[in-house]
Specification:
The protein is of the alpha/beta class and 249 residues long. Helix content is 46%, strand content 15%. It is globular and about 50 Å long.
Length: 249
């Protein structure tokens, strides 16, 4: 028996990194998986390797969320697991704020999960045990000078998560909602840093982490999976930090 046998799961940003590892784990553990992303080539290949269905979905576009939900409605009539994982993390700071970049980051990182929750609630309400997992970040909990827009958006995701959890408990919906907060994880999202600053960028990050290394995508997927499946059935509105001790000091 898989740990999510028979469940219907949608993972955004499943074409790379943490989302890819989550898609693979969901599929191995028995879920019917929908992989949503804007990177079609990688997404189609990963979906194919995991008997999953690829959906082209830009999470910042409400109409694309509605199309994705219509497809899942037609296929299954319900959704059990929504993982709002898609994201970008460009650098900026409050001394040189570019509002076009601010709005771009907000549209994907904060509005994406909000639109996703809004679009998916009708199908999640049809589940026996629905679960939403939102990817925030340690940057949504502590300050980081070089992540102005991203940090503000991820802090928004942290609060959005708790508000959704409260909505669902108050209205007696069978849906839990939790957030996962990775620290520095070795995925392609760090490629821009590596290209700009070279190995120094990574070694400095590693030195700042009490466990002395970057995290792996699978280590975050493990946390997402726990919150998504029924093993966390009494957990809602909480935040799970996966950062090698970075925020413990
Ligand atoms: N890697 C880290 O160090 C780290 C740390 C904290 C939080 N996170 C968060 O984890 C999540 C996954 O990041 P990752 O490290 O796997 O990055 P990644 O770059 O490997 O993967 C991100 C995926 O999101 C997709 N994506 C980007 N914009 C999209 C959009 N508008 N619509 C749909 N898909 C879109 C990309 O195509 C890509 O497949 C993100 O929300 C990120 O902010 C990552």
């Amino acid at each position: 028996m898989g740990r999510v046998d028979g469940k219907i799961a949608l993972v955004t940003g499943g074409s790379s990194g943490i989302g890819k590892a989550t898609v693979e784990m969901m599929a191995v553990e028995g879920a019917t998986v929908y992989l949503a992303d804007i990177n079609d080539d990688q997404g189609i290949a990963i979906a194919g390797a995991n008997s999953a269905t690829f959906i082209h979905l830009d999470v910042s576009q409400a109409d694309q969320w509605q199309s994705a939900m219509a497809l899942i409605q037609a296929d299954h009539g319900r959704l059990d697991i929504l993982v709002n994982n898609a994201g970008i993390s460009p650098h900026d700071n409050y001394e040189s704020l570019d509002m076009a970049l601010w709005h771009h980051i907000m549209a994907i990182v904060l509005e994406g999960p909000a639109l996703g929750v809004n679009a998916a609630l009708p199908l999640l309400k049809q589940s026996q045990a629905g679960s939403i997992v939102n990817l925030s970040s340690v940057a949504g909990i502590i300050g980081a000078s070089g992540y102005a827009s991203y940090g503000a958006a991820k802090a928004g995701v942290r609060n959005l998560t708790k508000s959704v959890a409260m909505l669902c408990t108050e209205r007696k919906y069978p849906i839990r909602c939790n957030s996962v907060h990775p620290g520095s994880i070795d995925t392609p999202i760090l490629d821009a840093d590596k290209a700009k600053y070279g190995d120094k960028a990574i070694s400095q990050r590693e030195k700042s982490i009490p466990m002395g290394r970057l995290g792996r995508a699978q280590e975050v997927a493990n946390a997402i999976f726990f919150l998504a499946c029924d093993e966390s059935s009494f957990i809602t509105g909480t935040e799970l930090i996966v950062d090698g001790g970075f925020t413990a000091r």
